[in-house]
Every structure is written in C-alpha cells, then in structure tokens.
Amino acid sequence: MLVLEIENLSAFYGKAQALREVSLTVNEGECIAIVGANGAGKSTLLDSIMGLVKTRGTVRLHGEDITGLRCAQIVKRGVGYAPERFNLFPHMTVRDNLLVGAFTARNEIAKNLDAVHRLFPRLAERENQETSTQSGGERQMVSLGRALMSSPNVLLVDEPTIGLAPKVCGELAKVLQRLSKEMGLTVIVTEQNANFAISLAERLYVLEGGRITAQGTAADLSKDDILAKSYFGA
Q: What proportions of the chain, in percent to the nearest 5, are helix, strand and coil?
C-alpha cells in the first residue's frame, strides 16, 4: 500500500532552487534511504515534506494532498521528524525533551515513553540529564525518541550517522530496522554514509544537485557504479 507519494517536487530558498522536480514513492512499512553527497538536497527534501520550505509540486500522505500544510498539521497526520540538526532544548532534561514531542499524542505519553525507553534503555537511565551534557550518539537517540513520542506511522530521519562512531551507527541501524520490520513504521532516512544506507534500506534513491539521478536496490545501484559516480564524479 502506497503511504507517501512525492510528485515533481521543487523547493526554494528565496530565489535559489534546492530541489528540482523530485518524484518518489514509499510503501507502507518500507524503509528507504535517500543518499547523496553534502549539499545534494537531502535535508531540504525532508524539510519540504514537513512543510518547512517553500515548494512547488505535490506531496501526498495516504492519498491526501498535504502540500502547503503547516508542520504541526503534518505531524498530527502521523509523520515524525528527527532532523539532522537535532533541535533539542540543551538545558532541558532528556525526559522533558521527549515530552515536547508528545504535544499531538498527549493521551499516549506513557505508552510511547515506555516504547522509547525499550528502544533506548540509556535514555531511561539518564532521563534527568540535560541534553547539552550528552554525547552525539545520545542526542541522536533523544531526537529519534522525541519524533516517536508523536505516535507516527511515518518516520523521517535526517543524516543520523553524522559524527558518530561506527558502533553507535550500528546500534541506530538496528533500532531503525526494528521500527520498520517489527513495529510497522514506514521509515525514510537521508544519508551521506552509503554503506550505512545500503545495510539499512530496502530501496535507495540517489539525490544529486537537487535531482533524483537513480533509484533501486543496493544491488541495482552497484551494477554501474552509480553510487560512486554520485559521490566522486565520473
């Protein structure tokens, strides 16, 4: 079943165009990755889905056109977002940062908090710690946990491995796979780390200069060195 459909989506920062007629689809319970080098437009794509950027084109969620809706309206429709910038409140505790994400799911706080703690036991152990004193990996856990507090059925995760040790990246990959395969969430991840994306996603889209230049499984994209060309050029 089709959950998310993006059709001819372009995005703009003032007069500067960051995305150029991007089209993609995501099925229910699927985990896909958007890969590309720095500046390819990956974060802009997720911001565009969330209504944070001026766009032209169409974004459909469960068949409903959500183009132009405010971010809070999109969250209420079941989309959670863990941005690459974290956007945590540095002098608030882990628990309070998580509770901020529950503003659209206040009746499910206890259930969602328990689910986050089972995914990330470290957050339960350090729930009274200020996020400003945490490691990058722990802050990424808080960011993901906060997105899950809104009871999403679609989860957008932007550049989760930036600056993190390989061991932490492996832990995050396992969590994202559990969310998709065991909990039924539809997961969309943007990544510069192609190896991480290949190990995680069922399908990949290559974003280059604001355009989708290739798509398919990891095996498909490796046939003609498409990934290597998108990062390093022909």
A: 40, 30, 30
For 145-182, what is each residue's pLDDT tens digit? 999 999 999 999 999 998 888 888 999 999 999 999 88
Burial 124-139 (b: 16+ CB within 10 A, else e): eebeebbbeebeebbb
Residue whose entry in the numeric block shows the structure tokens 């990949």: 204
What are the residue ranges spanned by the domains of the chain?
A: 2-78+153-232, 95-151
State how far the Cα of 187 lies from the Cα of 59, in Å rounded to an integer: 16
Planar angle of CA 71, 178, 140, nearest 5 degrees: 55
**How much is the pLDDT for 10?**
98
Q: What amino acid occupies position 187?
A: V
pTM over 0.90: yes
Strands 154-158 and 16-27, by their bridges, are unpaired
2-78+153-232 placed in CATH 3.40.50.300:
yes
∠ CA(11), CA(75), CA(179), 5° rounding?
A: 100
